[in-house]
């Protein structure tokens, strides 16, 4: 897959991916603070947590599912390198109604291979990840979200050595 897609996914979903061990406590604290102030509840799941859910768990929200997700995330982070986790996530994620994996997404939405995606195409694909059944990479929501993702892609994803 194109390096720009990896960067777009990080910019859209988990820009601190290389700085945590599966749980981003900075983002969890932000989500909790927002909820305490009466703001809309937002997720703080990392790519590793989403991979655990996508591969092994059921849809919906419950404390039982979240408990399993935590355990599976710990296993994933222990046995797999970060690059493999990111690749697995990209190939297990849904990119449109019934469209799974980056190759299928690139061919369906842009008539190209995942390896040949441009930065803008990558940003548009990453833009739909929160709601791939509602948003199209070629629709207005993805266009707006892709602009912000492209700006964030200009900054390198921080690594532990940074």
Please, could you describe this protein's structure?
The protein is mainly α and 162 residues long. It has a single domain (3-153), classed as Penicillin binding protein transpeptidase fold, CATH 1.10.3810.10. Helices cover 57% and strands 3% of the residues. The protein has a two-stranded antiparallel sheet. Strand 1 (94-96) and strand 2 (99-100) form a beta hairpin. Helix 1 (3-13) packs across helix 8 (140-153) and helix 3 crosses helix 5 (82-92). The chain is globular, with a radius of gyration of 15 Å.
List the helices and strands and how they pair.
Blueprint: H1 3-13, H2 25-36, H3 47-56, H4 63-79, H5 82-92, E1 94-96, E2 99-100, H6 102-110, H7 119-127, H8 140-153
Antiparallel strand pairs: 1-2
Helix pairs in contact: 1-7, 1-8, 3-4, 3-5, 7-8
């Amino acid at each position: 897959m194109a390096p720009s897609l990896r960067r777009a996914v990080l910019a859209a979903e988990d820009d601190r991916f290389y700085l945590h061990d599966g749980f981003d406590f900075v983002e969890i604290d932000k989500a909790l603070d927002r909820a305490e102030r009466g703001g809309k509840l937002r997720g703080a799941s990392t790519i590793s947590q989403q991979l655990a859910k996508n591969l092994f768990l059921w849809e919906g929200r419950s404390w039982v599912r979240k408990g399993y997700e935590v355990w599976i995330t710990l296993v994933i982070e222990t046995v797999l390198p970060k690059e493999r986790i990111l690749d697995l996530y990209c190939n297990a994620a849904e990119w449109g109604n019934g469209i799974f994996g980056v190759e299928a997404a690139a061919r369906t939405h842009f008539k190209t291979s995942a390896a040949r995606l441009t930065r803008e195409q990558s940003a548009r694909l990453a833009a739909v990840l929160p709601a791939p059944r509602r948003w199209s990479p070629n629709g207005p929501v993805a266009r707006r979200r892709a602009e912000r993702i492209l700006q964030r892609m200009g900054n390198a994803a921080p690594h532990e050595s940074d």
